[in-house]
Design brief:
Two copies of one chain form a homodimer. Chain A is mainly α. Chain A has one domain: Orthogonal Bundle (Arc Repressor Mutant, subunit A), CATH 1.10.10.10. Chain A is 65% helix and 7% strand. Chain A is built from six helices and two strands, in the order H-H-H-H-E-E-H-H. In chain A, strands 1-2 form a two-stranded antiparallel ribbon. In chain A, a hairpin with a 7-residue loop joins strand 1 and strand 2. In chain A, helix 3 crosses helix 4. Chain A is globular and about 60 Å long. The two termini of chain A are 29 Å apart. Chain A binds a DNA duplex through helix 2 and helix 4.
Chain lengths: 149, 149
Amino acid sequence: MPTKYKGTPEEVQALDTYIKLQRATETSMSRTTAHLSNFDLTTSQFAVLEALYHLGTLSQRDLAEKLLKSTGNMSSVLKHIEKRGLISRERNENDNRYMRVCITGSGRTLIDSMFKEHVAGIVEEMSVLTSEEQAELARLCRKLGLRET
Amino acid sequence: MPTKYKGTPEEVQALDTYIKLQRATETSMSRTTAHLSNFDLTTSQFAVLEALYHLGTLSQRDLAEKLLKSTGNMSSVLKHIEKRGLISRERNENDNRYMRVCITGSGRTLIDSMFKEHVAGIVEEMSVLTSEEQAELARLCRKLGLRET
DNA sequence: ATAAAATAGTTAAACATTAAACGATTTAAT
DNA sequence: ATTAAATCGTTTAATGTTTAACTATTTTAT
């Protein structure tokens, strides 16, 4: 998907890499999250449940930081999965500003029932790349995302 | 950001690569589109304008395919930038099902005024990678996105 | 101790996004 | 020619998302 933009070779390469990164990520994420609708989960809801499942109780602030989302977004997403009984919330007794967000038994059961399938989809998605290519892609992403060595 | 998941080495590497790809893309896209708010443009609105600017008149269906979005989404995004006078729409005379979406003079002027800055931001973002690294990242993304050699 | 600053979470407004139902138009099948 | 199927765009419902204003709580400065 080379851009139509006429620029210096440096600009053309940066734009080309940029758009390919964007497209590949979009399509990869789309393919690997399509099955979530079978469990009536949105990608955001799944991300929250998965974080709580693997990391344990977190505050909404910590969740927002882990997931790169705003606190307002957390309020909204948590409201839905709380209503469905997949998570529970209570005030932190030591500091009443904080909420302690926990995954419930029901939420844990749901993740238990589908996480293997989820991982299998990701392994399948990544299997077009060799182990060495995956390592190199991870390295380049780390360098790009952190903007540091 | 290695996952907590205990799996086979293949699973661990796939998950690690997957999450790094997702995070790097999110942060890169976030950094390179932050300036759009200076022009009262959302990323979706900018994507539409940029496509029309560089590709010329397109139908809403074609726009949706280029941008990997639904036709319902196109209806919504186009409504906003049409109201603002940045694009115009008319029915295709040969086939009345189609809309012909054009960027207006006003829309063109807006993109003219900020596209160089946009490109500069992307070049700056990508500049943490050498030219060879960018080429390799593009290659890996192409392979991953298309799921073909 | 008290006032100011900082922090956590909620809410509202605005826009994005999709799926599904829908109406309008065109094409294909017979 | 008529019917059936396909295609394009719109709308609605539901959810996601951010920013900014807001409340409540805690911490800091004096």
